[in-house]
Fold:
Amino acid sequence: MGKFKYVLIGVSALILSLSTLFFGMRAAFPRRYGAAAEQSAIEPALAYAVMKAESGFNEHAKSKAGAIGLMQLKPSTAEFVCMRSNLVFEPHRLEEGAYNALLGCRYLQYLTEKFSVLETVIAAYNAGEGTVSKWLEEKEYSDDGQKLNKIPYEETRRYVKKVFRYCKVYRILY
Structure:
Protein backbone atom coordinates (compact mmCIF):
# COMPACT_ATOMS: atom_id res chain seq x y z
CA MET A 1 0.00 0.00 0.00
CA GLY A 2 2.89 2.39 0.78
CA LYS A 3 4.42 2.05 -2.69
CA PHE A 4 1.04 2.60 -4.36
CA LYS A 5 0.57 5.78 -2.33
CA TYR A 6 3.85 7.24 -3.63
CA VAL A 7 2.99 6.28 -7.23
CA LEU A 8 -0.41 7.95 -6.85
CA ILE A 9 1.19 11.10 -5.44
CA GLY A 10 3.73 11.13 -8.29
CA VAL A 11 1.07 10.71 -10.97
CA SER A 12 -1.05 13.44 -9.38
CA ALA A 13 1.94 15.80 -9.30
CA LEU A 14 2.68 15.03 -12.96
CA ILE A 15 -0.91 15.74 -14.00
CA LEU A 16 -0.91 18.99 -12.03
CA SER A 17 2.41 20.05 -13.60
CA LEU A 18 1.23 19.25 -17.14
CA SER A 19 -2.07 21.07 -16.70
CA THR A 20 -0.26 24.11 -15.29
CA LEU A 21 2.15 24.03 -18.24
CA PHE A 22 -0.71 23.67 -20.76
CA PHE A 23 -2.77 26.54 -19.36
CA GLY A 24 0.34 28.65 -18.89
CA MET A 25 1.26 28.15 -22.55
CA ARG A 26 -2.27 29.04 -23.64
CA ALA A 27 -2.03 32.32 -21.78
CA ALA A 28 1.38 33.06 -23.32
CA PHE A 29 -0.04 33.30 -26.85
CA PRO A 30 -2.14 36.33 -27.76
CA ARG A 31 -5.63 35.54 -28.95
CA ARG A 32 -6.83 39.07 -29.51
CA TYR A 33 -6.65 38.73 -33.28
CA GLY A 34 -9.20 35.92 -33.53
CA ALA A 35 -11.85 38.25 -34.96
CA ALA A 36 -9.68 38.88 -38.02
CA ALA A 37 -9.49 35.16 -38.71
CA GLU A 38 -13.23 34.72 -38.20
CA GLN A 39 -14.08 37.62 -40.54
CA SER A 40 -12.05 36.01 -43.29
CA ALA A 41 -13.03 32.37 -42.68
CA ILE A 42 -9.43 31.43 -41.91
CA GLU A 43 -8.79 28.87 -39.19
CA PRO A 44 -7.55 30.87 -36.17
CA ALA A 45 -4.73 28.37 -35.56
CA LEU A 46 -3.44 29.03 -39.07
CA ALA A 47 -3.67 32.80 -38.63
CA TYR A 48 -1.75 32.62 -35.35
CA ALA A 49 0.83 30.30 -36.90
CA VAL A 50 1.50 32.79 -39.69
CA MET A 51 1.71 35.67 -37.19
CA LYS A 52 4.17 33.72 -35.08
CA ALA A 53 6.29 32.73 -38.09
CA GLU A 54 6.22 36.18 -39.68
CA SER A 55 6.78 38.51 -36.73
CA GLY A 56 6.72 36.59 -33.46
CA PHE A 57 3.56 38.64 -32.68
CA ASN A 58 5.46 41.92 -33.01
CA GLU A 59 2.99 44.52 -34.34
CA HIS A 60 5.85 46.89 -35.21
CA ALA A 61 8.02 44.39 -37.09
CA LYS A 62 9.54 45.61 -40.36
CA SER A 63 11.53 43.56 -42.85
CA LYS A 64 14.32 44.62 -45.19
CA ALA A 65 11.91 43.85 -48.05
CA GLY A 66 9.44 46.45 -46.74
CA ALA A 67 6.93 44.10 -45.10
CA ILE A 68 5.21 45.54 -42.05
CA GLY A 69 3.46 44.35 -38.89
CA LEU A 70 2.17 41.12 -37.41
CA MET A 71 1.65 39.33 -40.70
CA GLN A 72 4.48 41.11 -42.53
CA LEU A 73 2.44 42.64 -45.33
CA LYS A 74 4.01 44.74 -48.04
CA PRO A 75 2.00 47.91 -48.60
CA SER A 76 1.28 46.82 -52.19
CA THR A 77 -0.18 43.52 -50.94
CA ALA A 78 -2.23 45.31 -48.28
CA GLU A 79 -3.55 47.72 -50.90
CA PHE A 80 -4.50 44.78 -53.18
CA VAL A 81 -6.37 43.12 -50.31
CA CYS A 82 -8.22 46.34 -49.50
CA MET A 83 -9.26 46.86 -53.13
CA ARG A 84 -10.44 43.25 -53.35
CA SER A 85 -12.33 43.49 -50.04
CA ASN A 86 -13.81 46.95 -50.57
CA LEU A 87 -11.87 48.31 -47.61
CA VAL A 88 -10.16 51.68 -47.35
CA PHE A 89 -6.40 51.25 -47.58
CA GLU A 90 -4.72 53.05 -44.69
CA PRO A 91 -0.96 52.42 -44.95
CA HIS A 92 -0.25 54.27 -41.70
CA ARG A 93 -2.30 51.60 -39.87
CA LEU A 94 -0.23 48.60 -41.00
CA GLU A 95 1.51 48.55 -37.61
CA GLU A 96 -1.85 48.29 -35.82
CA GLY A 97 -2.25 44.66 -34.89
CA ALA A 98 -5.96 44.28 -35.58
CA TYR A 99 -5.79 46.07 -38.95
CA ASN A 100 -2.73 44.11 -40.07
CA ALA A 101 -4.24 40.83 -38.89
CA LEU A 102 -7.47 41.55 -40.77
CA LEU A 103 -5.63 42.28 -44.02
CA GLY A 104 -3.24 39.36 -43.56
CA CYS A 105 -6.12 36.95 -42.92
CA ARG A 106 -7.99 38.29 -45.95
CA TYR A 107 -4.85 37.71 -48.01
CA LEU A 108 -4.64 34.16 -46.68
CA GLN A 109 -8.29 33.70 -47.64
CA TYR A 110 -7.54 34.95 -51.16
CA LEU A 111 -4.60 32.54 -51.46
CA THR A 112 -6.80 29.71 -50.15
CA GLU A 113 -9.32 30.44 -52.89
CA LYS A 114 -6.57 30.55 -55.51
CA PHE A 115 -4.64 27.45 -54.40
CA SER A 116 -6.44 24.32 -53.26
CA VAL A 117 -3.65 22.81 -51.12
CA LEU A 118 -2.78 24.41 -47.79
CA GLU A 119 0.96 23.79 -48.19
CA THR A 120 0.79 25.68 -51.49
CA VAL A 121 -1.10 28.53 -49.82
CA ILE A 122 1.58 28.87 -47.15
CA ALA A 123 4.36 28.70 -49.74
CA ALA A 124 2.62 31.46 -51.72
CA TYR A 125 2.31 33.62 -48.60
CA ASN A 126 6.09 33.40 -48.22
CA ALA A 127 7.45 33.29 -51.77
CA GLY A 128 4.66 35.13 -53.58
CA GLU A 129 1.69 33.87 -55.53
CA GLY A 130 3.34 34.50 -58.91
CA THR A 131 6.41 32.49 -57.96
CA VAL A 132 4.33 29.59 -56.66
CA SER A 133 2.09 29.66 -59.75
CA LYS A 134 5.22 29.23 -61.89
CA TRP A 135 6.40 26.33 -59.71
CA LEU A 136 3.03 24.63 -60.13
CA GLU A 137 3.43 24.77 -63.92
CA GLU A 138 6.78 22.96 -63.80
CA LYS A 139 6.82 19.15 -63.67
CA GLU A 140 9.99 19.32 -61.58
CA TYR A 141 7.99 20.88 -58.73
CA SER A 142 4.41 19.70 -59.27
CA ASP A 143 2.83 16.65 -60.88
CA ASP A 144 -0.73 17.96 -60.91
CA GLY A 145 -0.46 21.76 -60.98
CA GLN A 146 -2.00 22.02 -57.50
CA LYS A 147 0.36 20.40 -54.99
CA LEU A 148 4.05 21.15 -54.73
CA ASN A 149 6.17 18.00 -54.64
CA LYS A 150 9.28 20.08 -54.14
CA ILE A 151 9.72 23.67 -52.97
CA PRO A 152 12.82 25.07 -54.65
CA TYR A 153 13.52 27.86 -52.13
CA GLU A 154 15.11 26.62 -48.91
CA GLU A 155 13.69 29.57 -46.98
CA THR A 156 10.17 28.76 -48.18
CA ARG A 157 10.58 25.04 -47.36
CA ARG A 158 11.61 25.95 -43.82
CA TYR A 159 8.81 28.51 -43.57
CA VAL A 160 6.10 26.03 -44.59
CA LYS A 161 7.37 23.48 -42.05
CA LYS A 162 7.49 26.15 -39.34
CA VAL A 163 3.94 27.34 -40.03
CA PHE A 164 2.59 23.78 -39.97
CA ARG A 165 4.44 23.09 -36.71
CA TYR A 166 3.03 26.25 -35.10
CA CYS A 167 -0.42 25.44 -36.47
CA LYS A 168 -0.38 22.04 -34.74
CA VAL A 169 0.54 23.71 -31.46
CA TYR A 170 -2.22 26.32 -31.75
CA ARG A 171 -4.79 23.65 -32.63
CA ILE A 172 -3.86 21.85 -29.41
CA LEU A 173 -3.80 25.03 -27.31
CA TYR A 174 -7.07 26.41 -28.65
The first helix runs from residue 2 to 28.
